[in-house]
Design goal:
The chain is mainly α. Helix content is 64%, strand content 0%. It folds into two domains: 73 residues, no CATH class; 64 residues, no CATH class. The protein contains six helices and no strands.
């Protein structure tokens, strides 16, 4: 074989390798572009259905949804997940005056500031009142933990009001 023929074969081989590399690169770019286009179409379909694609719920729904990419199907899917982000599911709770005062007192204990109270002073021992309420709660079928809350509520309320019967001045050796 002549030197020219060898050079031509080598050039042809190099050209074929370069062409194959270019074809592989083009195929990879095409695949990446197709994936990006599909992701954009998917996001657009969710946006048209009114889904906030920036929220955690929207991101989760987009990644897990495998149905048709139309507005009705996506809305039905989102409805099956529960209330949409931003919708309030809270119901108004009506709290009685006694519960409100008790909550204020507990809040005051946590912050170190006792709220003003309009309740008359209790002459019966807070321990006795608490024990009676504990026993009544147990009789109603409440757990010991729930019933204990009634006892401690009475004692803590008395302490917040300054009832010396429940306060320890530090002179006691416990």
């Amino acid at each position: 074989m002549s030197m020219e023929q060898e050079e031509l074969e080598q050039v042809a081989e190099e050209t074929t390798d370069n062409d194959m590399k270019q074809l592989r690169d083009a195929a990879n770019r095409s695949k990446a572009n197709a994936e990006a286009a599909n992701a954009a179409q998917r996001e657009n379909a969710f946006l048209k259905a009114g889904v906030d694609t920036d929220s955690n719920l929207g991101k989760l729904a987009m990644s897990g949804y495998e149905g048709e990419m139309n507005t009705e199907a996506i809305k039905a899917f989102m409805g099956s997940l529960g209330p949409a982000a931003g919708e309030s599911t809270a119901t108004e709770v009506v709290i009685g005056e006694e519960e409100r005062q008790s909550t204020e007192i507990r809040t005051g204990l946590g912050t170190g500031v006792a709220p003003p109270t309009n309740t008359p002073p209790v002459t019966e021992s807070p321990y006795d009142v608490g024990l009676r309420e504990f026993q009544a709660a147990k009789a109603e079928g409440r757990t010991a933990e729930e019933a204990s809350a009634f006892f401690f509520d009475n004692v803590f309320n008395a302490a917040v009001k300054g009832d010396k019967r429940v306060l320890i001045d530090g002179s006691h050796n416990l």
